[in-house]
UniProtKB/TrEMBL annotation:
Organism annotation: Cuerna arida
Location(s), subcellular: Peroxisome
Protein name per UniProt: AMP-dependent synthetase/ligase domain-containing protein
Keywords: Peroxisome
Domain AMP-binding enzyme C-terminal residues, every copy: 407-484
Superkingdom: Eukaryota
Domain AMP-dependent synthetase/ligase: 4-355
GO CC annotation: peroxisome
GO MF, one annotated term: long-chain fatty acid-CoA ligase activity
Any single Pfam family the record assigns to this protein: AMP-binding
Length: 505
């Protein structure tokens, strides 16, 4: 754990997880019940995840950066029997969110603290029990379809939904790592710099535990200086990183030698060919392999990429036992090589469905069992897959998923706003930045201030959802025949306005 310097051996981690599992059984946690985490990436959070797996519970990992209102929505959805959280800024948010729950049963709360807590909360040390001599984990067969995680995702349009993940989801990812990298050297050090509620973090953590690699991780988002220091101090060989983090390092004034670093997997937001070349040349002098892979929370890893078989700009070839069809928008026809359309996949790593939401699940799959990603792309004659854009509305800021409707709701709460459309504007460093187009009520046409509206709306939005691309006033929107704003035309008008404004400067 970089910030604290705390370490655990694998033997210590397993023993503590077993001790915690005995405590979970002692307070009545049984297979299938939900344990929620609202936490930083800490040693204790990892213990709780492993303990939850050992007792057969369903682990729901919530976004710790959310505000209390957003957390309350997710807590109501998963209705946990137990909740693990942190002291400091996180616990008050959780307490407020729990107060909003209307269920008859509130979860037991376990706090990551060395000191006793009020309100009958357990600390993690109080919950630990002596490991029973005949301790047996809850049995699951290999490649099981039993659900083990609920990870939240925005899907293609709406607010975040709980995605039900099975053990097979991670088994398929394990096969991808083994077949493509053959990393068996237990001296390999892997750095995890993404938050614990990302599926890539959970996948990397479980896979590296399986191999016995040394894992280095941050509790929260690191600044550039801390990140670079950790890479050098621990001689990181494999790094799972967001493209946004790599782009931020371009601003760091001191260039380092990276003789120890071998491979960087990029996940989350799309990484353009121009940006990859810049990072490789300016940061790593061409010595480090940057391999993009493609997947979603709902799908697991769908493509594989290796240093020896890497086409810059591509997200790699299809993973084992994964099928792809590219569908033409409007007609639904299946397209061939080099023809752009919506990417649809069929794989054994796909989610079981959205938690308690069969209607939303049904909308994502077609009659042939292909999952519709909402991403646009194509494949070439060698089978390499390329991402070119998105038809879905979800905004990706620094690889965080943002549902536009969540921001639109906050804007429509303001008295000035009659209509609001929220979208992402392209940004080389951050992927996309949240931007709003609004129509004002007539009485506010003269007095309304775009910067004040942006600042007021941001007060009620978590940091990841804040408006950073400005609020743009419209007299009217272009609409479809059914009365829906035509978002791509609105985005085009905003881009034209910004381009004209920049030229005038």
């Amino acid at each position: 754990e970089v910030e604290t310097g705390r370490t655990l051996t694998y033997g210590e981690l397993v023993h503590k997880a077993q001790s915690l599992a005995c405590g979970l059984r002692w307070i009545g946690i049984s297979p299938g019940q939900v344990i929620a985490l609202v936490s930083y990436n800490s040693l204790e959070a990892q213990m709780m995840i492993l303990a939850s797996l050992l007792v057969g519970a369903l682990t729901a990992i919530l976004e710790s950066s959310f505000n209390s209102v957003e957390l309350a929505v997710q807590l109501r959805e998963v209705n946990p029997h137990l909740l693990f959280t942190e002291i400091g800024k996180t616990l008050p948010k959780v307490e407020y969110a729990l107060a909003q729950m209307t269920t008859a049963r509130l979860p037991r709360v376990v706090v990551n603290s060395l000191h006793p807590q009020p309100r009958n909360y357990f600390t993690i040390n109080q919950l630990m029990r002596e490991v029973e001599p005949n301790f047996e984990p809850e049995f699951r067969s290999a490649n099981s379809l039993n659900p083990i995680f609920i990870l939240f995702s925005c899907g293609t349009t709406a607010s975040a939904k709980g995605t039900l993940i099975s053990e097979r989801y991670f088994t398929r990812s394990k096969m991808f790592i083994e077949s493509d990298f053959g990393i068996s050297d237990k001296r390999c050090t892997t750095l995890i710099s993404s938050p614990i509620f990302w599926n890539s973090t959970i996948t990397t953590l479980l896979l590296k535990l399986n191999y016995g690699h040394r894992i280095v991780f941050f509790r929260g988002p690191p600044c550039e200086a801390v990140l670079i220091k950790a890479l050098h101090k621990f001689h990181v060989q494999l790094w799972v990183a967001s493209p946004a983090v790599l782009m931020q390092l371009l601003d760091w004034p001191v260039r380092s030698r990276w003789d120890f670093l071998k491979v960087i997997f990029t996940i989350g937001m799309s990484f353009t060919l121009h940006s990859i070349i810049r990072v490789q040349d300016e940061l790593f002098s061409g010595r480090v392999h940057i391999c993009q892979v493609y997947g979603m929370t709902e799908t697991g890893t769908l493509t594989s990429n290796t240093p020896s078989m890497n086409k810059l700009g591509s997200v790699g070839r299809l993973s084992h036992n994964t099928e792809l069809k590219v569908m033409e928008e409007g007609t639904g026809l299946t397209l061939g090589a080099y023809q752009e359309g919506e990417l649809c996949f069929k794989s054994q790593s796909l989610m079981l469905g959205y938690y308690n939401n069969p209607q939303a699940t049904q909308l994502m799959f077609d009659s042939e069992g292909f999952f519709h990603t909402g991403d646009l792309g194509y494949y070439d004659n060698q089978g390499f897959v390329y991402i070119t854009g998105r038809k879905k509305e979800v905004i990706k800021w620094k690889s965080y998923q943002i549902a536009p409707v969540d921001v639109e709701i906050q804007l429509l709460e303001l008295p000035e706003i009659k209509e609001a459309v929220v979208f992402g504007l392209p940004n080389e460093r951050e992927g996309e930045i949240v931007t709003a187009a609004v129509i004002l009520h007539p009485e506010y046409h003269v007095t309304a201030n775009a910067e004040l509206i942006e600042a007021t709306a941001n007060l009620n939005l978590s940091n990841t959802k804040k408006i950073r691309g400005g609020v743009h006033f419209f007299q009217s929107f272009p609409y479809t025949a059914t009365g829906k704003p035509i978002k791509n035309l609105i985005v085009k008008q905003v881009l034209n306005h910004l381009h004209k404004h920049n030229n005038e400067k």
